Amino acid sequence: MQFQHVILAGGSGTRLWPLSRSGFPKQFLSFDQAESLFQQSVNRLNNLDVEGASQLPAMIITNEEHRFLASEQLKEIKQSQASLLLEPVGRNTAPALTLAALRADPDTVFVVTPADQSVSDVKGFQEAVKKALIEASQANAIVVLGVTPESPHTGYGYIETSEFHSGIANVISFKEKPDLDAATSYVEKGNYFWNAGIFVVKASIWLKALKQFRPDILMPVEAAWGNRTTDGKFVRPCINEFAAVPSESADYAVLELCPGSNFSTKMIVLEGGWSDLGSWSSLWNVLPKDKDGNAHQGDVLTTNCRNTMAYASDRFVSLVGLQNAVVVETPDSVLVCDMAGAQDIKYVHARLGEGNPEREAVGRRVYRPWGWYSTIKEDIGFKVKHIHVNPESSLSLQKHHSRSEHWTVVSGTAEVTIGKKITILTQDQSAYVPIGEVHRLTNNANVPLQIIEIQSGSYLGEDDIIRIEDKYGRVT
């Protein structure tokens, strides 16, 4: 048997706003551990020992916007051998998985996992996956992982099962996110499980099922894949064909139609401390808490509070006399809500782009393939930025029509190109870039470079960049 971990990393995590943004969604965030959720997902099945089986490097499916973010996080955990499939536009998980199946050997068994979940018992998770791999390989079954419900949760889908034999049950049906009465009845019956969104299937079985149930998805994905391009480690399906693909989840398109069909559908219980971290309340559930049930991250002080979730990323935050509340502070936004209403943040998120698209997309810290920058202060005619350049990284060779720039090195060593002159700057040294002059900032060292940049001019938008050369392929 040959198997491969397929990680779906294209989600947006809107219910964890303001920390999660479309430019930096929740799967790339780190909460209670040093590694991000995406990095934890990759490592969770790294070097999985399955007797008689070989494991291929992981396949990551993400979108074009997050390609460098995913690459950098893979590099940090020494998983650069993982391959990256880039969706030119988001079309949900069914088309994404189809891209992976078209790329793989037909007999490869996929372990399909979202990139934004939490699993506290990694060993238990691995044991469930091993059992699912054997069943999917030997019986050509689609094997889903279900979680024993702790409560009648209305935010999860449910899996209805038959009796278990050797730890495996037939799937009778999948149920959509129910109302409270239905969820309560599911829990009381005892044969319903939360759908974890994790499943194991052969690439060939997935394609056969999709051809039977949703040929309208398969055909345009095949066309997009047939006209794909490869740029180093990035593989891109053709945008024109892929944009015509219906947007549909793997559950709706295939999995929910399999029970009772010619496609055997099984379930194995996942007892691994699973959470989908779909909201601030679910994050509160998995974080360490004090004796009064308060889960805090960052510089937070509470007085007479119970069962609160507080996240401070940039400033000191104090809570007084609150119960069942969520308080999240970022450099550009503050969220305050009742814990029970945390799911409704999606309605706030839907209006965030009105009049200010960047408020939803990026926040104050903006990530680039070379590092990141944050805007410290902006007003008419000037902008002040903190620029962080990763080791052995470089900004593009560029120029601006409407602004000049003044760089001061805070730490590290900068190679500065201005016109035809190249200068080395160290701490407290600075350089001036006139309007219209070609320039570049490079960090050739093995430690980060920190720069304070002051821009001045009549227009300071990020679209006033004319790239002449770029090691990341962004010249247009």
CATH superfamily of the largest domain: Spore Coat Polysaccharide Biosynthesis Protein SpsA, Chain A
| Whole-angstrom Rg | 24 Å
Mean pLDDT: 92
CATH architecture term of the largest domain = Alpha-Beta Complex
Number of helices: 12
Spans of 5+ residues with little confidence (pLDDT < 50)?
A: none
Number of strands: 31
The rounded distance between the terminal residues' Cα atoms is: 44 Å
Q: Helicity range of the residues?
A: 10-25%
* CATH topology name of the largest domain: Spore Coat Polysaccharide Biosynthesis Protein SpsA, Chain A
State the shape.
globular
Helix-strand blueprint:
Layout: E1 2-8, H1 37-44, E2 54-63, H2 67-76, E3 83-87, H3 93-103, E4 109-114, E5 118-119, H4 122-139, E6 142-147, E7 158-165, E8 168-175, H5 180-189, E9 192-202, H6 203-213, H7 215-226, E10 229-231, E11 234-236, H8 239-243, H9 250-253, E12 265-269, E13 274-275, H10 280-286, E14 295-297, E15 300-303, E16 309-312, E17 317-320, E18 325-329, E19 334-338, H11 345-349, H12 357-361, E20 365-368, E21 371-379, E22 382-389, E23 393-394, E24 397-399, E25 403-411, E26 414-418, E27 421-425, E28 430-433, E29 439-443, E30 449-457, E31 466-469
Parallel strand pairs: 1-2, 1-4, 2-3, 3-11, 6-12, 14-16, 15-17, 16-18
Antiparallel strand pairs: 4-9, 5-13, 6-9, 7-8, 7-9, 8-12, 10-11, 18-19, 20-21, 21-22, 22-30, 23-29, 24-31, 25-28, 25-30, 26-27, 26-29
Helix pairs in contact: 3-6, 3-7, 6-7
